[in-house]
Amino acid sequence: MIARLLICLCLIATPAVAVQPDEILDDPQLEERARVISEELRCLVCRNENIDESNADLARDLRILVRERLVEGDTNEQVLDFVVDRYGEYVLLRPTLTGSNLLLWIAGPLMLLMAIATAIFYTRSRATAPETDALSEDEKRRLDELLKD
Amino acid sequence: MITELGHFALILAFAVAVVQMVVPLAGAMTKRADWMAVAEPAATAQFLLTAFSFAALTYAFVVSDFSLQLVTLNSHTDKPMIYKITGVWGNHEGSMLLWVLILTLFGAMAAWFGGNLPPTLRARVLAVQSSIAVAFFAFIIFTSNPFWRLAIPPFNGQDLNPLLQDPGLAFHPPFLYLGYVGLSMSFSFAVAALMEGRVDAAWGRWVRPWTLTAWLFLTIGIALGSWWAYYELGWGGFWFWDPVENASFMPWLIAAALLHSAIVVEKREALKSWTILLAILAFGFSLIGAFIVRSGVLTSVHAFANDPERGVYLLIITGVFTGGALVLFAIRASAMEAKGVFGSVSRETGLIVNNILLAVSCFVVFVGTMWPLLADILWERKLSVGPPFFNQAFTPFMVLLALALPIGSLLPWKRGRLERVIPLLVPALILSIALAALAFAIQTGRSALGPIGVALGIWLIAGTVTELWQRAGKGGVRLQRLRGLPRADWGKAVAHSGLGITMFGVAALMAWELEDIRIAQIGDRFSVGIHDIELRDVRRERGPNYVTTKAEMGVFRNGREVAVLYPEKRFYPVANMPTTEAAIKNGILRDVYLVIGDPQQNGGWAVRTYIKPFANWIWAGSIIMALGGALSLSDRRHRVAAGARRIAAPDNAVPAE
After folding, report:
1. Spatial contact of A25 and A71, defined as CB atoms under 8 Å apart
2. How is A57-88 classified by DSSP, letter by letter?
3. pLDDT at site B278
4. Which of A21, A135, A148 sits opposite B517 (nearest CB)?
5. Distance CA B7, CA B67 (A)
6. Where are chain A's structural domains?
7. Prediction pTM value
8. CB atoms < 10 A from the CB of A28, how many?
9. Nearest CA-CA distance, residue A84 and chain B, Å
10. Which residue has the higher pLDDT, B397 or B485?
11. Residues contacting B304, CB < 8 A, separation 6+
């Protein structure tokens, strides 16, 4: 947490920042799509950056590859599939909704439902519970003393 | 000599911690007042010894004593003095020492201000607190000793990582640690209460200030880290969903939940076992965070010296404390009998909704962070979980939280009616929808994120105003009544508004950012949005321990020059590392963010321009949240020692209501 030390070995290799001017496509719509795709792809040699933010040579190669595929006329999905076929699903920053990953995606909503069910059960019991008063006189005095402003 | 004294003080503090862990606990069990009384002087001694040890290490850094391995690895004589000092915690060993220093400070504060705690509870709290200290003292002394000497000291050091040579880094870790470690107090109180077998309103009142303190420091720490990333990393990202960031975010979410559930314990004597569980989990996540950062099991941009041996030790600490507390919880939680009765529509349920959303969103972050590890171990799938996942899976919970917040905070305790509360919020609702629609109309064809952010931000702030107005009652004396509201109420209003500001800032920045990447020749002028940028000059200069390529760039709006900025690209020869120093023109409505890149082969320079709308609102909102916490903390009723000394307050000017 102290810092994002070592912004990759990448930085040492080529001291430049991310997307280079010569990579940018002339067609602004295609370029926009390239940026959207880039945010989904991980720089494989970096620690935790997408290829848009990374300075590694590999990230540059991937950025150019993505743009080449787009110019060829691929859809966004086809480009992503193309990259995954060659580099494996490790390259995807948004895990696919397949197999065991389903668990990852439904974990939050499932937990929410369980929590709501528990909460409803609890509030029901609270709404009907008799008001108990189990403090002894001594404890009450102590409590009043503490709660006093 | 001073180094050896510091080393010795550290070992002595370890010994004192062992005594403080054992004797008061035994005293509390056998009801021996003299044994219990050991805890206070021991807590003070432990703190003073650790403080001395820390001072000794700092001294070694200040005088550049390269016979210390740690100083050699992380310092250099040419480094500016402030970074020599902050370099003490810019590394694993030193930051661990800072960690225990803060841990013992909290223990000592519990001893100093805990005069009104029942003696057995106090003895147990201090003993549990000290047991955490024992674990970390042992960790430092046996695996990460900062006082290691070199047989042959070199002439000069290897310098601190240049990215860490920044004022932001001077304050980011201490605040973060104050937050992480502050949660140890809530943990100690929870475990002590489980040992005692009772939790009551008074317990809730003691725990809340500690949690609030930890939470507000954590808020500042996270905000500082995010702000630092924004200006230092060269593309203006402010949050990366990196495992290490998540490690600080998870305790923050749980601490926020704990803060709110402790109110229910204090005011209504309900949600007791849940609150205890949250207190255990909050510190548990702090420990998991320490493990994530320092073990290297998850790939993160933040790389501390990663060492499997340390990782195993930290995993054991995490397991023993969290697991042990949870076992104790499982055995004793049934003893926590709830008292307060409330209807299904009430402030209590509002706070339960808050707790559910915060806890579940923390769970999402946790699962997402650990998933690559789990998938690898269980299914041998090598995969990544990055920002696109978190943005998609986490954000809905925050939207729900923001939607529910004004409604919940307007509901009365015990039993409320939605049909009374909702009409009060109609003006806030109309205002937020109207402004969101306006934003939507202006932006044309961009994502819906911006307008949603506007709506949520306005909804939160207007909801807060509605609540204050409501609290002020009817009639002409409203303003007077507002001034008379307790500070805790003001704190709540301020903190909730801060949340609204941060949410708005995040959404606005992500939705409306502009970017321009181009090759510019010297003298070129180009426009980005409503601004014109001119590259005037690029020159090479020398800094104290670096060389730099510095550009001079003019920023124009409507043909008028509004700023001259100097983005830099530095190279630190000792560390053999380049850094990008963006130049930023800060503004309330937008930041202009300039970065100078490489010289191009056929002349000219790569230049990046980012227009970051409302960027500063993100951190301003966070600081406002923390201020709200501080305001609430300053409420007389919450003072740690409230009730202990019942001196008639001399300031009779405060109207007694």
Report:
1. yes
2. HHHHHHHHHHHHHHHHT--HHHHHHHHHHHH-
3. 92
4. A21
5. 14
6. 10-91, 107-147
7. 0.88
8. 9
9. 11
10. B397
11. A2, A5, B91, B92, B95, B293, B294, B296
Mean pLDDT of chain B: 85
**pLDDT, tens digit (0-9, with 9 covering 90-100), for B34-93:** 888 888 889 999 999 999 999 999 998 888 888 888 888 888 888 888 888 888 888 888
- At residue B171 the predicted structure's pLDDT band, cuts being 50, 70 and 90, is confident
- Closest residue, chain B, to A101 (C-alpha): B375
Q: Residue B44 has which token pair?
A: 């003070």
Rounded Cα–Cα distance for residues A53 and A43 (Å): 9
Best of A126, A128, A133, A147 to substitute, by most chain B Cβ atoms within 10 angstroms, is: A126
pLDDT at B649 over 70: no
- Whether A2 sits inside 8 A of B381 (CB atoms) is no
Taking the CB of residue B640, how many other CB atoms lie within 10 A of it? 20
Long-range contacts of B469-477 (CB under 8 A, 24+ apart): B470/B410, B470/B424
CB contact under 8 A, B384 and A95: yes
Q: What residues in A contact B598, CB-CB < 8 Å?
A: 15-16
> In this complex, which of A2, A19, A92 lies closest to B173 when CB atoms are compared?
A2
- Among residues B404, B499, B504, the alpha carbon closest in space to that of B453 is found at B504
Q: What is the pLDDT of residue B346?
A: 82
Give CA–CA dist B644/B113, Å, rounded: 9
Average pLDDT over residues B159-175: 79
Residues of B whose CB is below 8 A from A8: 301
Average pLDDT over residues B342-356: 84
Task: Residue window 24-63, chain A: list those with CB within 8 Å of chain B.
Answer: 24, 39-40, 42, 46-50, 53
Residue B63 touches chain A, beta carbons under 8 Å = no
* CB < 8 Å to A80, chain B: none
- The model's pLDDT over B174-192, given as tens digits with 9 standing for 90+, comes to 899 999 999 999 999 999 9
Residue B359 at interface with chain A, using a CB cutoff of 8 Å: yes
If residue B552 lies in a helix (H) or strand (E), which one and from where to where? strand B547-557
Q: B205: which 2 tokens?
A: 């009142």
DSSP state of B349: H
Q: How far is B298 from chain A (nearest CA, A)?
A: 9
Interface contact flag, A123 B337, Cβ < 8 Å:
no
Nearest to B174 by CA among B102, B258, B247, B267: B102
Tell me the CA distances in angstroms from B125 to B19, B121, B211, B287, B323, one per residue in order: 14, 6, 14, 18, 18
Fold for domain A10-91? Answer: Helicase, Ruva Protein; domain 3 (1.10.8)
Specify whether the CB–CB gap between B301 and A49 falls below 8 A.
yes
- Are B248 and B297 in contact, with CB atoms under 8 Å apart? no
Helix/strand/coil (H, E, C) string of B439-456?
Answer: HHHHHCCCCCHHHHHHHH
A23 vs A18: CA distance, rounded Å: 10
Which of chain A's residues have a Cβ under 8 Å away from the Cβ of B360?
108, 111-112, 115
Are B95 and B135 within 8 A, CB to CB? no
